[in-house]
Amino acid sequence: MGKNGIKMPGFIGREQHAVDEKGRLLVPARFRRKIALRQDGADVSSPVTVLYVLKADDGSLELYEPSAWAEKERQLLKLSDFNPEERLLTTMIYARLEQAELDRSGRIALSRDMLDHAGIEKDAVVIGANVKMIVWDPSRLDRLLRENAGRFSLLASRLV
Predict the structure, then answer these.
(1) What are the domain boundaries of the chain?
(2) Contact at 8 Å (CB) between 7 and 67?
(3) Confidence of residue 34 (pLDDT cuts 50, 70, 90)
(4) β-bridge partners, 15
(5) Helix, strand, coil percent content, the chain, rounded in steps of 5
(6) Residue 78 carries which DSSP code?
(7) What is the pTM of this model?
(8) More confident call, 159 vs 27
């Protein structure tokens, strides 16, 4: 949300980039510009330098800028440590979460654990999904989309 409670524009689009030998992935420039807007309304002279990286169950990685992750964290803080299922969920989420610094060249270094989870070796596709970016191995993404192409209408009809 912006200063007036108006939701800032999200990440939209899809780009493929190489992952270098150190596991660094270039965050697309158009997404970096969105990050620089600082959805929390902060001064753009203090740019975001950290992204939150979460392993998703589908074999992808999700990237969140700090204000978007803060919203998720507010929900997690509502969970009780005294409820075993809620405590388990909190543990599972934080066990799948890392922070990655955005360097001056617009890259983030993904850990070997994160790269292995997503099956990323050489290239990665970054998809803008409004408040987050989803990172896929290109062949995994192509297979997922191909195998589920016939389901799009059914899934989309649930939203309309």
Answers:
(1) 11-157
(2) no
(3) confident
(4) 126
(5) 35, 30, 35
(6) T
(7) 0.84
(8) 27
Find the angle CA(151)-CA(153)-CA(155) to the nearest 5 degrees.
65
What's the rounded Cα separation, in Å, for the pair 54 and 49?
17
The string of pLDDT tens digits covering residues 98-153 is 999 999 999 999 999 999 999 999 999 999 999 999 999 999 999 999 999 888 88
Residue 53: Cβ within 10 Å count = 25
Distance CA 110, CA 34 (A): 21
pLDDT tens string 75-93 = 999 999 999 999 999 999 9
Q: What is the dihedral of CA 135, 157, 12, 142, to 10 degrees?
A: 40
- The CATH superfamily of 11-157 is Transcriptional regulator MraZ domain (3.40.1550.20)
Closest CA to 95 of 71, 120, 76: 76
Query: Kind and range of the H or E element at 89?
Result: helix 84-95
Average pLDDT taken over every residue of the chain: 88
Q: Would you list the DSSP string of 2-61?
A: -TTSPPPP-EEEEEEEEB-TT-EEEPPHHHHHHHHT-TT---TTS---EEEEEE-TTS-E
Q: Which amino acid is at 56?
A: A
